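Re-run with default settings, no changes from the original entry. Doing this only to confirm the output is reproducible before filing.
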Amino acid sequence: MCPGWVKTEMDVADQAGGGYSDADIEGVNPMGRFASPEDIARAILFLADPEQSGFINGQALPVDGGWTTDGSWQSLRMRKR
Protein backbone atom coordinates (compact mmCIF):
# COMPACT_ATOMS: atom_id res chain seq x y z
CA MET A 1 0.00 0.00 0.00
CA CYS A 2 1.41 3.37 -1.07
CA PRO A 3 -0.90 6.04 0.32
CA GLY A 4 -0.75 9.65 -0.76
CA TRP A 5 -1.49 12.61 1.49
CA VAL A 6 -4.11 11.56 4.04
CA LYS A 7 -6.08 14.09 6.07
CA THR A 8 -5.47 13.02 9.67
CA GLU A 9 -4.60 14.64 12.99
CA MET A 10 -0.96 14.06 12.10
CA ASP A 11 -1.35 16.18 8.95
CA VAL A 12 -3.08 18.95 10.90
CA ALA A 13 -0.20 19.00 13.38
CA ASP A 14 2.35 19.03 10.54
CA GLN A 15 0.60 21.94 8.82
CA ALA A 16 0.68 23.92 12.06
CA GLY A 17 4.40 24.41 11.36
CA GLY A 18 3.45 26.52 8.32
CA GLY A 19 5.26 24.43 5.71
CA TYR A 20 2.19 23.82 3.56
CA SER A 21 -1.57 24.24 3.49
CA ASP A 22 -4.54 22.17 2.36
CA ALA A 23 -4.59 24.21 -0.87
CA ASP A 24 -0.97 23.24 -1.60
CA ILE A 25 -1.81 19.53 -1.50
CA GLU A 26 -5.20 19.84 -3.19
CA GLY A 27 -3.64 21.92 -5.96
CA VAL A 28 -1.19 19.22 -7.03
CA ASN A 29 -3.42 16.17 -6.63
CA PRO A 30 -5.47 15.23 -9.73
CA MET A 31 -8.42 14.32 -7.49
CA GLY A 32 -8.20 17.79 -5.95
CA ARG A 33 -8.36 16.53 -2.38
CA PHE A 34 -6.57 14.64 0.35
CA ALA A 35 -7.22 10.94 0.80
CA SER A 36 -9.37 10.06 3.76
CA PRO A 37 -8.48 7.24 6.13
CA GLU A 38 -11.53 5.46 4.67
CA ASP A 39 -10.03 5.66 1.14
CA ILE A 40 -6.96 3.81 2.37
CA ALA A 41 -9.02 1.33 4.41
CA ARG A 42 -11.15 0.42 1.36
CA ALA A 43 -8.03 -0.37 -0.66
CA ILE A 44 -6.70 -2.54 2.17
CA LEU A 45 -10.03 -4.34 2.43
CA PHE A 46 -9.93 -4.98 -1.31
CA LEU A 47 -6.49 -6.56 -1.04
CA ALA A 48 -7.52 -8.58 2.01
CA ASP A 49 -10.55 -10.09 0.24
CA PRO A 50 -9.54 -13.24 -1.67
CA GLU A 51 -12.71 -13.01 -3.77
CA GLN A 52 -11.71 -9.54 -4.99
CA SER A 53 -7.94 -9.75 -5.17
CA GLY A 54 -7.06 -13.41 -4.88
CA PHE A 55 -4.81 -13.37 -7.94
CA ILE A 56 -2.95 -10.16 -7.06
CA ASN A 57 0.41 -10.48 -5.37
CA GLY A 58 3.73 -8.69 -5.19
CA GLN A 59 2.35 -5.30 -6.17
CA ALA A 60 2.66 -1.83 -4.71
CA LEU A 61 -0.78 -0.23 -4.90
CA PRO A 62 -0.72 3.57 -5.03
CA VAL A 63 -3.76 5.03 -3.29
CA ASP A 64 -2.89 8.65 -3.92
CA GLY A 65 -5.62 10.16 -6.08
CA GLY A 66 -3.36 10.06 -9.14
CA TRP A 67 -0.48 12.00 -7.59
CA THR A 68 2.21 9.69 -9.00
CA THR A 69 0.63 8.89 -12.37
CA ASP A 70 1.62 11.93 -14.40
CA GLY A 71 4.30 14.49 -13.62
CA SER A 72 2.89 16.93 -16.15
CA TRP A 73 -0.57 16.94 -14.67
CA GLN A 74 -0.10 20.17 -12.69
CA SER A 75 0.68 22.25 -15.77
CA LEU A 76 -2.35 20.85 -17.58
CA ARG A 77 -4.65 21.65 -14.67
CA MET A 78 -3.33 25.20 -14.41
CA ARG A 79 -4.13 25.83 -18.10
CA LYS A 80 -7.79 24.99 -17.49
CA ARG A 81 -8.21 27.60 -14.71
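The mean pLDDT is 86. Residues 36 and 65 are 11 Å apart (CA to CA).
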